[in-house]
Amino acid sequence: MEKELLTISEYCINYTVDPSFIDALEESGLIVLTVIDDRKFVHFEQLQELDRYIHFHYDLEINIEGIDAIMNLLQKVKHMQHEIKLLKNHIHLHEPNSL
Predict the structure, then answer these.
(1) The domain spanning residue 47 has which CATH number?
(2) Strand duo 33-36 + 5-7: pairing
(3) What is the number of domains present in the chain?
(4) Helix or strand or coil: residue 87?
(5) What is the mean pLDDT of the segment spanning 52-63?
(6) Ordered strands of the 33-36 beta sheet
(7) CB-based contacts of 19: which residues, under 8 Å, 6+ apart?
(8) Which residue, 5, 15, 21, 70, has fewest beta-carbon neighbours within 10 Å?
(9) Structural domain boundaries, residue 8
């Protein structure tokens, strides 16, 4: 299990990120950290998301609330794209030329 985890302190040092930003992401529910022996870890599967949040915050100067709003909108777009795909497939099944 430890091979799947990276300490937050190590991540922050390697990527020059303020640990309080990581804490704020956790408090907002954008990431889930694991605590082992009073040390915080992030799962490797969340690193891509974490990199995205860091880009939003440090490069685009978007605050935590803005990041949360962006992620909610992206999730809605993804859901709508899935619905559109299902509807298109349903339409194609009922088209006369699909036989």
Answers:
(1) 1.10.1660.10
(2) unpaired
(3) 1
(4) helix
(5) 96
(6) 5-7, 39-43, 33-36
(7) 8, 9, 12
(8) 15
(9) 2-98
Phi and psi at 33, nearest 5°, equal: -105, 155
Q: Each residue of 20-56: pLDDT tens digit?
A: 999 999 999 999 999 999 999 999 999 999 999 999 9
Q: Whose CA is closest to 15, among 37, 45, 42, 33?
A: 42
Q: How far is CA 73 from CA 28, 54, 76, 77, 80, in A?
A: 16, 18, 5, 6, 10
Report the alpha-carbon distance of residue 49 to residue 10 in Å, rounded.
Answer: 17
Q: What percent of the chain has pLDDT over 70?
A: 94
Question: Is there a contact between 31 and 46 (Cβ–Cβ < 8 Å)?
Answer: yes
